[in-house]
Design a protein that fits this description.
The protein is α/β, with parallel strands linked by helices. It has helices at residues 4-14, 67-74, 97-107, 123-133, 141-151, 167-179, 197-214, and strands at 23-36, 39-52, 56-61, 82-87, 90-91, 108-111, 185-189, 217-222, 233-238, 241-242. It binds adenosine-5'-diphosphate and magnesium ion.
Length: 243
């Protein structure tokens, strides 16, 4: 199993600032096949893509086109049946589960459609929990929690619990929680699907803000055409392929 020190070295040696935006993630000919009732179901049929540093990239497609399956492979929650995923210079698709988990915990953050907050904890405590789970020293929590909640514009709602917040505010807590440990890649699965147009626009503004201030790369899925304008790159998915 890899040590967290090893994961640390990965960032430090490979995150030197360069003139151009460095490629953070490369996907080569990725396929994902599930066995369903004894026969193969081809869900991803040869995906090629690239994510660069500080980019906002969207995967767009209808329900069932394979977006979540691809996002799960990018985040190491699932592994491709064929093809390669290179993350930050590492052969992510070949890594042991332990090592992939370690890289994921240290360098990635996840946001889901339903906000995945702990209902009895305040916004502050939810973000703090994420720092605790990432093994960040307690002495750093206070400053970082405040910083993250400010970044998402919730400085005046810090001590509210999820049920005292609107859907958009809850999703902003989820974003603060996902970026607290300073990931380099943020993966978001339909983060605006449960929100109205106005709240979705706010979430996209928050994404743009954290790309600027935290230098994170964001890859998100959506089927909402109105929010595609802010993307640096849009991959359109139809039946397991990009068109
Ligand atoms: N673990 C699994 N086992 C079998 N089939 C799956 C599994 N995960 C996803 N699928 C199938 O893959 C297809 C694409 O699903 P998904 O990636 O969730 O699409 P999207 O996120 O674009 O709606 C669907 O037909 C779904 O039923
Ligand atoms: Mg999905």
């Amino acid at each position: 199993m890899a040590t967290s020190q090893e994961a640390e070295q990965i960032t430090e040696s490979q995150l030197e600032p360069t003139e151009d935006q460095r490629i953070l993630l490369t996907v080569n000919d990725v396929e994902r096949t599930f066995q369903v009732g004894g026969s193969p179901l081809h869900v991803l049929k040869g995906i090629n893509m690239e994510l660069k540093e500080r980019q906002l990239v969207m995967l767009r497609g209808r329900s069932g086109s394979g977006k979540t399956t691809l996002l799960n492979c990018l985040g190491g929650l699932d592994t491709p049946s064929k093809g390669e995923i290179l993350f930050n210079g590492l052969t992510f698709h070949k890594m042991s589960d332990d090592k992939r988990t370690l890289v994921r915990r240290k360098h990635m953050g996840f946001i889901f459609q339903a906000f995945a907050l702990m209902p009895l904890l305040s916004a502050w405590e939810n973000v703090e929990l994420s720092l605790r789970m990432a093994g960040i020293p307690r002495a750093q929590w206070k400053e970082r929690v405040a910083q993250c909640l400010e970044l998402v514009g919730l400085e005046r709602r810090m001590h509210h619990r999820p049920f005292e917040l609107s859907g958009g505010e809850q999703q902003r807590v989820a974003i603060a929680k996902a970026i607290a440990h300073k990931p380099i890649l943020l993966l978001a699965d339909e983060p605006t699907a449960e929100l109205d147009t106005n709240m979705s626009a706010q979430i996209m503004a928050v994404f743009q803000n954290i790309i600027r201030t935290e230098h994170v790369t964001i890859c998100m899925t959506t089927h909402d055409p109105t929010i595609l304008e802010v993307a640096d790159n849009v991959y359109e998915m139809v039946d397991g392929r990009f068109i």
